[in-house]
Each structure stands twice: as structure tokens, then as C-alpha cells.
Amino acid sequence: MIIKKIIKLLSHREQKIGFxxxxxxxxxxxxxxxxxxxxxPFIAVLANPQIIETNLILSKLFIFFEFEKxxxxxxxxxxxxxxxxxxxxxxxxxxxxxxxxxxxxxxYKLGKRLVEGYLYQxxxxxxxxxxxxxxxxxxxxxxxxxxxCLMPMMSLVSQGAVAIAxxxxxxxxxxxxxxxxCLVLGLAxxxxxxxxxxxxxxxxxxxxxxNELRFKVxxxxxxxxxxxxxxxxxxFFIDHFSTxxxxxxxxxxxxxxxxxxxxxxxxxxxxxxxxxxLLYIIAQKGFTDAIPIIALYAFAxxxxxxxxxxxxxxxxxxxxxxxxxxxIYEDLISLEKEKENNxxxxxxxxxxxxxxxxxxxxxxxxxxxxxxxxxxIKCKQKIGIVGGTGSGKTTTVDLILGLLKPERGSLxxxxxxxNSQNYRRWQSMIGYVPQQIYLSDESIAENIxxxxxxxxxDYKAVERVAKIANLHDLVNNExxxxxxxxxxxxxxxxxxxxxQRIGIARALYHNPKLLIFDEATNSLDNLTEKAVIxxxxxxxxxxxxxxxxxxxxxxxxxxxxxxxxxxxLVAQGSFDELLKNNSSFKxxxxxx
Length: 592
Fold this sequence. Notes:
It is built from 21 helices and ten strands. It is of the alpha/beta class. A hairpin with a 2-residue loop joins strand 4 (408-413) and strand 5. Helix 3 (39-47) packs antiparallel against helix 6 and helix 8 packs antiparallel against helix 12.
């Protein structure tokens, strides 16, 4: 079942390459057998040169190559055996290199498929997933699958072929003794594997859980590093990381021990069994006649035991990493890549955006967060959406953004319904400023032109939008490197207001027709908020603006304000109209 899943994770081309590697592995096993077998005639002739005359094949070779002296022929046999061994090892090196390259390239491709699969999931999918879990799958578990499944599977095939070839050869020489040795070793390894199989599977499940906790703690600790330092929470996170990290290390160590322990006990069984077999052969044939067979058994044991141990080790590793493979396999099978929006249907936002009879319920929730929402947003207006915490404001905006799809009802732009065929085109017309601006550890210019390759950045556009966001003077007068100044991870070197202005500039960089502020000033102090609001006032009047706000001062100058309570649109109008006619709005203004 595990091997079947691994094969399914390979593309058609990778399966072809894998088949070619399998053939190379079989050739390698054949060469191994020939290399070992070539030792036997050399040792036989060395022990008794008269065999050259009595052995049909050796005598024909002696005559064919026109040897005059037996010593020269013995030297020839030795060099031939050596050449075969060298060629066998060279071919084995090439096969091993190709196997390693195949495995590591598959790690890259598997990781890329996961990144692609996760990023193309709808926004709703991410609501129930932890980012640490996603990071763990891509950065850690993919490597575990390659090193713990794909590599062992290839090793299983190659070493299995080697073991079968050597078994076949020694069975041909002395069937009874060889059969006893093979059966004893095979049964011993088989019984041990069966005994530890369930234990390894449970160990693999616990290892996967511990690994997920490791990533989660690290993500939380360094994602809130400022709070950790201020609160003196270092020891808390160290302790919370220590437990799963220790569990992870213990499970890995235990699995490694289970893979290695039988080796030493079974080496004693194997060599003891081989010794008994050789004594039996000597008793039957005499020491002189038994020398070639002894040499064969010695070389066969030298290759056979490591092969058998590697087969067992690969099987136990496959069992241990099985739970991780199941998890990644389920993700890759269930994550269907979102189809690119190829529909050329033109969207012209010239009139209005409408939500019509919209209902929406979050996954795993019983009650809808929006109930029969009907609202219309006119083009080129400034719109405010207000309400208490949990009222449904952000969900309403997420629907307008096309991140969520109505459970019932519709989103239309100029009477054109936004659906799975055209929502990408609609999103390309929107600029979005969230409450928390994500800034990468790059320059200000790269953060404004977020998602654009450095060499493709339009620096004139960067400067233009920075001026609109009241950011240009700060960059020129206070930052030594101007727009090339690096902001630090998550903008750690900037103030909250500066980060928000970069967010506004970023939202304007691609010339949107609709600009949405999702509680973008809530975390700012009054003076900084005032400066950011002034930046918003600088925005082109041809751009429609939607603002979600807790502080009602932010939406005072909006053309229309929508008041949402308990998932219902309860009132709409200008600031003064709502203040005069709606008691809930008046209460919000008084408490602001």
C-alpha cells in the first residue's frame, strides 16, 4: 500500500525514469552476481591448476586465447575477475548517483506541488488550517517522505535484486546447504519485522504529531517576538518547544535503533549458519575441493548480509514514515489546483457593486454570520461599513473581495455576477489594505511593489503612490538609502503609521478601481490615524473606497455608511443621517 502511494505521487515522466532506474538496478544485481561468481574459477585454479585441463570451459578459454603457460592463464583469470568487480562497482556508483538525484529532485517537485496546491486553495480552506502545519508539511515532511519512503523503496528494489541474484548463485552451487541458510535468515528477518511493524506505525504517528507541535511553537514564538521579549516569555516558549522536540528526537532514535538492532544478532546467526554449511561441504568434498566453494560463500556472505540488512532497514523505515506519507498523500490527492481564469469576459466597474440577498455561514458553524444582506455601492463613492465586533463587517468585505462565495445570494458588479469563472479578473481591479500590513525583509520599493520581481519594478509608479500615501518625504528625508532602505522582518524598523502608509502605497501600485481598508487604522494612535486618513484623502476621486472601521471618526466623510449588527444590515445613510435617526449608531459615536 505504501509503495502504491509513492508511485501515485510520481508524475508519468518520473515513473518512466523510475522504471529505467529499476532496470539499471537489476543490471547492477546481475553484475554483482557475475563479479562474485568470477572469483570462484580463479580461486579453484589457484588451488588446483590441473582444473584447467579437466574443466571444459576453462580448457576452451586456455586454447582460445592461446596461452602457453598456466601461470599466465591464472593471472588472466585474476585480472578478469578484478576488471569485472571494478566495472560492477563503477556501474553501481552510477546507479546510486542517479537514484540520489532522482530522489532529491522529487523532493523539490513534491515540495513545489504542495506549495502550488496550498496557495491555490480558496480562502475559505485556510480558515481551518494552521500555517505551522502547512510549513511543516512543505519544509519537513516532504524531506521525510523522500528520505524515509522513496530512498528506502529504491534501496529495497536494488538490494532485493542483489540478494535474489546471490541466493540464486549459491543455490546453484550447493542447493541444500544454501537453502537452509536462506530460509533461516529470511524467516528470522521476517519474524522480527512482523513483531515490530505495529510498534513502528504507532511510533510514526507520534513522531508526526511531535513534529507538528515543534513547528507550531516556533511559529508562535517568533511570530510574536516583540510580545515575547516584553512579557519575558522566553522560558515559556522554550519549555513548550522542548517537550515535542524531545519526543520527536526520541521517536526518531527509537525507530533508528529498531532498524539496526537485528543486524548484530542476525550476523551471528548468518555467519554461524554459513560456517556450519561450509563444514558440511568440507566433510562431503574434502578441504581442497571445497576451497572454491568456501571462497564463493565468503564473497557471497560479504554482499548478501548487508543486502539483507538493508532490505529489513528499508521496510522498517517505510513503516515508520507511513503516517507522514498518508498525510501528504491525502493533501496532494484532495488539493485540486484551481483552474486559471481564462474567461475573457470584460468587467467594467462604472456603476455599482451589489450584494443581493446574501447569506453566509463559516465552516463548522451552525449559525450564519450574514443574513439576507442587500447593499449597493456606487462607483467613485467613499463607503463606510461599521458595526460591533463579530457583527459581520469583515465577512461582508471578504465577499466583495471575492475571497468568500455567498452561501446564498450573489455579488454583482454592474449587474454581472462574480463567480468562479471571473473573480480573478474582478480581484485584479481591487487594492486591499488590511489592519496588519505584512512587510517582507526587503526594501521599501520591493514592499510597495509586493509580488513584482525586483528587476520589473516601476520606480516611477512607486514614487507616485508613495506621494499619495504621504510616504515620499519620509523616505527621502529620513532614510539614508531612500526607497532601497530595508525595512526589517515584518517592518520591525518602522512605526505603525509608516507600515500602514506602505500598505496604502502597495494597494495603489497597480492602479485599482476599488480600494478597501479593512480596519486599517484601528491599531494606530489618534495623531497617526489622522495622518493616515489625510493620506486616504489624497487618493484619486475616481477610485471607489470602502472602509471598515471601529472608530467612527474614520468614516465621518464617507458618502454612505452601512451599519451591520448581528449579521443584518440595519441602517444606511450619511454620517449625520445615521447620527440623527439611528440610536445604535448614536451610541457608537458617543462611546468612540
